[in-house]
Structure formats: C-alpha cells, structure tokens
C-alpha cells in the first residue's frame, strides 16, 4: 500500500531510468553527459587518479532561512550549463526544491544533492535548509562536505541560523566562502556585514572584490559606462532603475580586473572580465577605479601577510618590496587558498543572485579556494574493542605480559577502542559513510554515501560495521541530479552518490569493503577519547515503537559496533522539543500509519515515533512546530494515512535529584520456570558544566557506555557473574550460530549485553510522565541468580527494567523543560511591544538587545566616503532604511511559552518581525508548574 501511494505521488515519481527521449525533455540533461564524460576522462591513465580527485569539490550552501541559497544554486546550475532556464523559488520551479511542500512554501526542507561541472571540475553540491527545524539536514550534509558557501542577506547581515550553521561547519573544520547576496535590496550594507562577520562569526573576512555602485563614481558614471562598453561590450544602463540599487560591476582585487554582468539579457554566460591594469594608463576615467582597487588590494595583501609566512616572504622580497601592485596574483591566490583551507580566513564575494549578478566568480572561487577531497583531513575511524581483530591483539598482549610476570591488576589493554586512519586511496578498501536515507517506491531504499576511501563498484558487497557487520549488496550506484538519478558503475574516494540495494543501513552508518581488515593494520592507535567510541545505538525507540514486527530494517541489537573492525562516528541528532499525538482513524488504519511513520523515520532521524507508556498513545516528536506540521501534512495529504493529529506539545525531559542505590529482588515464573535475580544498581545525577561537559574521572574504574541524551551506563569492574556461566554460555553460543556477531563473546558479555539493552530502552521512559531521561549515570554493582534457570534473556531484561524502575522512583525524579535561546528581529518601533510580550507574557529573560549599525554614512563600503554626500541614492537609503535598521532581541524563554508566538509576533509587528530559536538547555520545573503539567498530560 505504502509503495503504491508513494509511486502515485508526484514527489516520488522519480525517473527510473533516464531514457534518451526523456533526457531531451528535461531542462538540464543535455549537459549531464558532459559532466560524466569529463569525470570519466580524468583518471583513466595510470597515475592520474589523484588528479581526478583534485578536480572534485564537495560543497554545501548554508545560511539563515531566505538568504538566497536556492536562488544562488539555481544560477550556478544555469551558468554551468546544467539547466537551460533559471527557475525561481517564488514560482516554485527550482531544480533543488522539488518536494511539493518546498514548492508550496518557498522554503527548503530537504537537503538536495546535485552534481554538475564547472571549468572541468566536478561539483557535488548540497543545498541545505535554513530553518532551524531542519537542522539535522545541515548536520548530516556538513558531515560529508569539504567546503561550504555561507550566504548572507546584505540587508539582514549575519542572522541567528547563520551563526548556528557556521558553528556546525567549524566543528568539522570545513573551510567557508562567504557570499554577500541581495546587494540590490535597499538598505544593503556591506560595512555592516563585514563588521558582523568579525563580531558574530568570529571570522577573518578577506574581501576579494569591490562592488562598484553608481554613486561611487563621483559623477563620472557616463564615462565609466562608456569605458566598460568599449572594453567588453556590456551596456551598464546607468539610467535604469535597477542600476540605482544594484552595483554596476565588481572589481576583482586579486586579478585587478573588472567583472561585468549583462543582467539585461540574461544570456548563457553573462560575465565579462577585462583587466583594469591594461586600460588604466590610457583612460583617465578609470583612475578612480584603479585607486579603489589598489586600496582594497593593499588591505588584502596586508591581511594575508599577517597570517601567512610564505606569502610574507614573497611580499618582502626584493622585487616586490611590499608594494601591493607588484604582487603577482597567483601568489595572492595561493595564500588565500592556504588560509581558507586551514580555516584561518574566509574569502568574501558580493552579488545579487536574483539579478544574475556575481555568480560566476563564486563558482570560480569554489575551485580556487575551497579544498578538494585531497586537501581535507579524513575522518578518523574508531576501532571496536570487541572486534575479533582487536581481541586477538589483546590476547597476544595479555599472554606476553603474563610471561613477563606483570602485576595482575593491570589496566585493560584495549579498554577504549582504537582509532584507525583512513587512507584517501582509490585502491584501498572501501570506507563509505551513509549520511542520508530516502525511501523511493521504485528503487527501494536509496542510501546517500560519501566514499572516503577506495573505489565503490556496483554489484559489490559491503559490510555495515555500525550495524552488527551486516552484509549489504550494492545493486546499483546512482549519481544524483537533485530528484533525477543516473546510473554509474563506480564511485571513487571523494565522491558523493547513492547506493541501491542496502537493507540494513541507516543514517550515520559506516560501510566497509569486504577487504576492510587491512584497514586495521594501518596506523592503528589507541583512542584518546574513550567515551565517544562507545556510543550506544540511538534507535531503540524505533524498535520499541514498532515492537517485534520491526523487521530486518529496524532490528536492534545492542551488540551494534561489536561485530567488525572500524566505524566512523554517527551523526549527532539534537533532542526533539515538540511532539503531538497521532491516532489512526480506525483500527484498520493503524498498520499503514505505522508503516508510513517507519519510512519517514528512516529518512529523517530527527523524527521519533513512540508509544506513550502512560496512555498507550502513538506520539510523534520532532525538532519544532514547523517540522511536525510538515511531517503530519505529508503523512495525511501525500501518503494518505488516515489519522487524527493531536495538539502540539512541548517535549519535556526527566532526570533525578538524588543519588540512590537499590538492591532489587526480582522473582517471576515464566512458562513454568522460576526466575529469581538480585540486581544492585546505583543511579546518580550527572552535573554538567555550561558547555555541556562533565567530570569523567568518576568513570575511570568502570566499563562505561554512553547512552542517548547524556546518560551513561557503567558496569562495576568487580562485577561477578560466575554463577551463571554454563547456562548463559550455551545461550550465547546458540545466538552466534544465527548471527554474524562476535565469535568470542562470553557469558559475562552476554548478560551485560542484555542489561545494556534493557537499560538503554528504560531511559526513554522517565518515572514522572514517561519522557526521556537526561543526565543520569546508572551503575550496575551486582548481579546474582537464585532461580531455576538463567537462560532467558527476557527474564534478565525484565529484572533489569524492574530494578531501574525502583531506583528511579526513590531518586527524587525531576521534570525538565526545554529553554530556548530566542532571537527576535524587529524594526525599532516594535521593540517595546515585543519585549513586553516576551517578558510579561512568556516568562522570558532578556539577554541583550542587538544594536543595529546606525551610522552608515560611509555607504555600502568605506573606500570612497566623500562620494556619498553628493549622491541621491545615499539620500534615498538614509531616508528609507538607515534609520530603520532592525534590532535583535535575544532572550531565554521556556519552550512551552513559545507556542503560538509566531502569530502574536506577526500582529505586533505588522508582519515585519521574524524570530529563530534553538534549544539552550533544560531547566527544572518548580513543583507548582510540575503539578499543572502532570494534570495537563494525565487529565487528572
Ligand atoms: N532582492 C533579491 N531577492 C533575492 C535575491 N536572492 C534571493 N532572493 C529572494 O529571497 C527569497 C529567498 O530565496 P531562497 O533562494 O529561497 O533562499 P534560501 O536561503 O534558499 O531559503 P531556505 O532554503 O528556505 O532557507 C526568494 O524570494 C528569492 O527570490 C537577491 O539577490 N535579491
């Protein structure tokens, strides 16, 4: 049923195989072949494999909502020759925003990947959403990118979500270009943007261009227009309305060229360059431009000299002697590239995508300054301490130590896993990372991967090292052009593409070639960050929700990571903050609803469906109101699931206030057999510092596992399970026959595994209202067996759950509410109303009132301040916008108070205000509010 509905719906009506007739009809396919031909021409000769990798650019478009990411991408596709006509976000016909919900709302929801060519380079570009509710899309894209283009709206400057995505990129050391877009809008301010790049992003901007406005030309506009026309044939049309707000052209201060854009004609390649240097001597009108360019070049050169030693040496050489005019531009470019790739600085470019202005230099700069996969550091793989390989190594080491009569109480030999360096080599074993899953009705499950090492071939077999070593058959490989796939034979290291055929892979999994063992012999070394290598699987809820009918795709095994070798770290998924109940219209609709939800969860790991332990209701949790609104709309309108959607509610958390130890006695008769255990447990709250860290020294003695939501599970080192050995060993052996799990598993490991599994699910059901727990350390102190039988994992699981329940009950459970950092952007005259609404009506604590720049008398850039006084345009700016710059009100507000804020803000600001919010932590709810919340949820 699900497949049928999916296939009927236009979103999912993907073209199964692009046939030649269809190809001709698609707006872009004419150019697809060229790219692939380009790609395949490189690397066919021996020794040139690395040359072809150096021609790849894996880049992302990231920014605050509406900065112009999709509009810019659309132009990039057009100028690269990939599409024949430019689509517009506002008309709902762009290549990248292909989902109906995206086209309807004019926003990006899904991060779409596309491959196209520019100057013989292969661009794998991902256009990411700017809305914070879809932050997981940014997170998983950034994870596989080598560089990104951060887009700023020239009027709004550095906005809240831009700061968030910048931080995300910084976390993974991703070099960043900055494109200041929308220079055609009144109120655009280059100065303000540059100030904010430094102050809000803490970055060093390198201005590579000067946008030259009509008012910069000291009344010589006509002469300069003639001069441009004579040199490159472009008519600047200085009398048109648009040239009053849009820059006339750009000066490239690196190459000292003028770059013009024929925005009137909108022709295939509308950019024209000519050298300022060659014309400046003959033409007196170009003197102004020359001066502007040299001033900016001096600043650029000075800035580079201060951070790049090699460049400083060139600059101070005898021939150049510090003169910015004399520095050859390849030297400047090389220094910019070095500093960009090492994330010390970010080149800044200017334009107005909507006006087709400034796009080609962005494409050129991606090639010039952003890294190829060869220039980026590869992720470090973690090696599982329980993998057979490491165990063997461990054993050898133990034997050798025993021979040397070393003390018995030695520290564990491989306590924390190992790390292994991944080679960027097309001939090495395959290491690929699954960063996205899409369920396609015709192709099945599409796994988007980045290949870090080796060459991934169609029809090969892979091992999913994150998911218990499951073997995956690669049926097909697809290169994606947004919604359109094209089949290819292989992906080389550095490539991004889609695998068809995987059955047990989800977002965040690592796929290895079958020859992966040799990876463990290279550069293997102890992991410096022990806790992080023990990430517990994050999918228990899926299993819980689907029950035992989950099927292979949802099988949960706490032995995850224990089977084979090396894995890359998964993707961080922020905790959900909103949820709503969803009920099938009738019992017969339940199965289909659950199927739909299961597919949607596979595609979107930030969506969680669970069953309320209190009410038995089906709950849907997500990243925000918009996220859940889009999910439920899709569920009902596109997938035709018949369901009632309940009220949007805040997703609380639970924790404990008091360290508590219990010795829990469990006794139960199951199918005639008596099971009797005593489980000793300590639960204690973990104190986190402001940056989310905590003192890990406590954990040193124990075997520790990181669970979800900042909870930890520890097994006491002296834990003794001898009593259980024989029966559990049998149990463990029989399991090994049917799985590919660790062959050297012991009875102790087996019991720990069962307890681990039980506790991992228990943390999702807090004692107050059944919300997930956070900040709790659970330590298993003892485990004793008295009954007839110890062979039932189900009984051990029940006993563990019952023990944890008892411990939580007495440990002063607390209810935590999410507190958001809210940035409201409003016009100055609305500040008072909005602050009062926040403080009085919504329990907000105001943190700051961001002062917009009030004095922009220096126009859009400060190189030519005296021109402004005589210019009409500046006057227009002053009247309309300079006194009107928006203010940012930054506050902390409990999320429950933010429900419905958007409509109130709309009323208070006549539709001009906007806001963003992100989780800033959780605060304990006082007793009075706790009572209210409990009543609201339980209804009594
Ligand atoms: N005036 C002007 N408007 C622009 C320019 N670039 C984009 N826009 C408009 O800005 C709006 C948002 O553009 P998008 O390209 O969807 O922005 P986005 O960053 O992709 O948005 P999300 O993906 O939803 O975060 C659209 O109405 C565009 O037409 C520009 O250079 N000038």
Describe the structure.
Residues 54-374 form the Tr-type G domain. One of its GO terms (cellular component) is mitochondrial matrix. It holds the Pfam family EFG_IV. Helices cover 31% and strands 25% of the residues. It is α+β, with helices and mostly antiparallel strands and 940 residues long. The protein folds into 6 domains: 1-33, no CATH class; 47-218 and 244-278 and 343-375, 3-Layer(aba) Sandwich (Rossmann fold); 419-522 and 563-568, Translation factors (Elongation Factor Tu (Ef-tu), domain 3); 579-650, 2-Layer Sandwich (Alpha-Beta Plaits), CATH 3.30.70; 655-720 and 748-811, Ribosomal Protein S5, domain 2; 816-851 and 884-938, 2-Layer Sandwich (Alpha-Beta Plaits), CATH 3.30.70.240. The strands form 8 sheets. The chain has an 8-stranded antiparallel sheet. The longest helix has 22 residues, at 286-307. The protein is globular. The chain starts with a helix and ends with a helix. Residues 5-47, 385-417, 521-564, 724-746 and 852-883 have low confidence and may be disordered. Bound molecules: guanosine-5'-triphosphate. Residues 63, 65-71, 89-90, 107-108, 129-131, 181-182, 184-185, 352-355 line the site of guanosine-5'-triphosphate (GTP). Guanosine-5'-triphosphate (GTP) is lined by residues 63, 65-71, 89-90, 107-108, 129-131, 181-182, 184-185, 352-355.
Describe what is shown at a glance.
The protein has 940 residues and is α+β, with helices and mostly antiparallel strands.
Domains, number = 6
Radius of gyration over all CA atoms, rounded: 30 Å
Could you tell me the strand content as a percent range? 15-25%
The first-level CATH class name of the largest domain: Alpha Beta
Number of strands: 40
Q: First CA to last CA: what distance?
A: 40 Å
CATH topology of the largest domain: Rossmann fold
Instruction: Give a quick account of the main beta sheet: strands, pairing sense, barrel closure.
Output: 8 strands, antiparallel
User: Would you identify the CATH H-level superfamily of the largest domain?
Assistant: P-loop containing nucleotide triphosphate hydrolases
- Class derived from helix and strand content: alpha+beta
Backbone shape? globular
Low-confidence stretches: 5-47, 385-417, 521-564, 724-746, 852-883
The tally of helices reads: 27
User: Helicity range of the residues?
Assistant: 25-40%
Hetero compounds: guanosine-5'-triphosphate
InterPro entries: EF-G-like_DII, EFG_II, EFG_III, EFG_III/V, EFG_V, EFG_V-like, G_TR_CS, P-loop_NTPase
GO molecular function: GTP binding; GTPase activity
Domain Tr-type G: 54-374
Keywords: GTP-binding, Mitochondrion, Nucleotide-binding, Protein biosynthesis
